[in-house]
Amino acid sequence: MNRTADFRQLLRRFSGGAALPPPAEVPLSTFIRLAGDQQQRLTELQFALQGDSSDYAAAIQACQTQLKELESQAEDSTDLTPPPAWKPRDHLAHRRSLVSGLYEDLKDIASAVQRTAMSEQQHEAEVSSFFTAVPSASSTARRKPPPPPPLPPQDGVRPPDAEESERLEAEALALLAAYETDLDKIEETQAKVGELANMVSFISTKVVEQQDQIETIQELAEESTEYVEMAGKHLDRAVDNRSSYRAWLVCWFVGSALFLLVYDYLDARFSII
């Protein structure tokens, strides 16, 4: 719903009744104008389904052709003046979504036309059954092949019922072919989406595995860093204790030598000869 007028009235009320400048008209691109025209045609065709018109096959085929042309122009942005924060990828995604929505509307209309044609054929078959003789038991037990179509009159004018049935049959076949083509495209798209989903899940699994390996390597690196720091501390302590160890060793040798000299002197002096 467009609430621009209400918003402008609210601004006029808060601005003390001052006149607001008219809204700036933004020029539409060729793609948007074609998409708007196509949406209008689809809307008119959808409204025409409620009437007595039955010639929809050509209109649906024309709409499908125009949608293909519109889809081919989705990547053409030469007639645009890009804003400062313009992102081509988002703009292209928006155009493709718009074309996809138009295809969905056309598919709904084709399905509705097909249902209408089938209901009309069923109604005609029911009406014609009232004017045919009731088949006997032998005829129902063994069905005969359908009779050939009636021959045209001698003057070359075809009966109206035959022309109507042939036209309806041709329209039904055209709609059925278009519907089957759309179903094939949908199935192909679904298959591709499934393949992409499998690839994404596989890639995500590999990413999780790589993340676990990175965390394990980081933990091992932290432990190795701690061990290296501890070894450095032990080396520093050994360097600090080296001088004191040498002093204790020299003192031990000097003390031992003095003890031996004193012991030898006492032994030589007080020994009994």
UniProtKB/TrEMBL annotation:
SMART domains found in the cross-reference section: t_SNARE
Listed A to Z, the keywords are:
Coiled coil, Membrane, Protein transport, Transmembrane, Transmembrane helix, Transport
Protein name (database record): t-SNARE coiled-coil homology domain-containing protein
Q: Might you name a Gene Ontology BP term for this protein?
A: protein transport
The organism's taxonomy opens as: Eukaryota, Sar, Alveolata, Dinophyceae, Gonyaulacales
Show the GO cellular component annotation of the record: endoplasmic reticulum; SNARE complex
The record ties this protein, via InterPro entries, to:
SNARE (IPR010989), T_SNARE_dom (IPR000727)
Main subcellular location of this protein, as a coarse class: membrane
Q: What organism does the record attribute this protein to? A: Alexandrium monilatum
Q: Which domain of life is it from?
A: Eukaryota
Q: Where is the region Disordered? A: 70-91, 134-166
